[in-house]
Amino acid sequence: MNIALSTAPPEAAGLPPASSQETIAAKFYEESLLPALFTQYAPRVVVSAGIRAGHRVLDVACGTGVVSREAAAVSGKDALVTGVDISPGMLAVARDIRPTIDWRFGDAANLPFADAVFDRVVCQFGLMFFADPARALEEMQRVLKPGGRIAVAVWDSISAAPGSAAMGEILERLAGPRAAEAIRLPYRLGDIAQLEGLAKAAGIREFEIRTHPGESRFPDLQVLVDAEIRGWLPIMGVHLDEPLIEAIEHECARRLGEWIDADGALRIPTSAHILAAFAEGG
């Protein structure tokens, strides 16, 4: 049974409590990975979705809310933005940063909203982690109003992200396949033909996919290692001890040196695809 969207403030949404470990990882994600990787794509997702003032917007797999905040800024002082995520830690940090946004706990495969509620639905770098991405796309369409639009960002193939490719190889050798898979997983929908197939499997009739080059920017190698090893891997359930992290950092310094500039900052190429899908009547 569908659950209707309420207008209750975020404090009344009944978010589940987050463990200290979940919250620490989410804060690390917000402070290190967002500025280095994700913030640059948030405006592109919002533009691809065609978000305007007065739109009711849903951000699926919102994380700590970078796209939700961008959507709220674009849609104005009366913004009607909802962010939904399955991670209590991410939601706790998101609510601390922007309590005026309606943060909800929920699964992308079974969104806790009624049919045809939102004018726009966005999802930045979440689709790759869903057990059934086509089902998640179906759910996004279900909650979308006739004439609405969906914008979904996924990373390009890992070959377009040489820093992550090198990190995956290092982790495979030093920490094992589970740690390496956590680094490689975000790129699993990088093939455009596969992404097109998912859209069609979800029943999306009208869509376009555009590729957007970008750049990961870390102030130094230590921040990169901390973000990936102490930030991202714990979110994925992989925890490494300090001697192993030091060995990984040493190997990263050797392998990633070509992207370190004169000031010691890392600037590594990235690339993402944004799928924009249009509901019937649009």
Features:
disordered N terminus; 282 residues; single chain; 41% helix; Rossmann fold; 10 helices; seven-stranded mixed beta sheet
List the helices and strands and how they pair.
Elements lengths: L19 H19 L3 H8 L6 E5 L5 H10 L4 E6 L2 H10 L4 E4 L12 E7 L8 H10 L1 E12 L6 H13 L2 H8 L7 H10 L5 E12 L2 H15 L6 H14 L10 E13 L4
Parallel strand pairs: 1-2, 1-4, 2-3, 4-5
Antiparallel strand pairs: 5-7, 6-7
Helix pairs in contact: 1-4, 1-9, 2-3, 6-7, 6-10, 9-10
Structure description:
The chain is an alpha/beta fold and 282 residues long. The chain has one domain (16-278): Vaccinia Virus protein VP39 (Rossmann fold). The chain has 10 helices and 7 strands. Helix 6 (162-174) runs antiparallel to helix 7, helix 6 packs across helix 10 and helix 9 (221-235) crosses helix 10 (242-255). Residues 1-12 have low confidence and may be disordered.
Write a compact overview of the structure shown:
With 282 residues, this protein is α/β, with parallel strands linked by helices.
Structural class: alpha/beta
- How are strands sequenced across the largest beta sheet? 3-2-1-4-5-7-6
Distance between the termini: 27 Å
- What is the C-level CATH assignment? Alpha Beta
Give me the Rg, rounded.
Answer: 19 Å
**Helix count, per DSSP?**
10
- Residue stretches low in confidence (pLDDT < 50, at least 5 long) are 1-12
Biggest sheet character: 7 strands, mixed
- Average of per-residue pLDDT values: 91
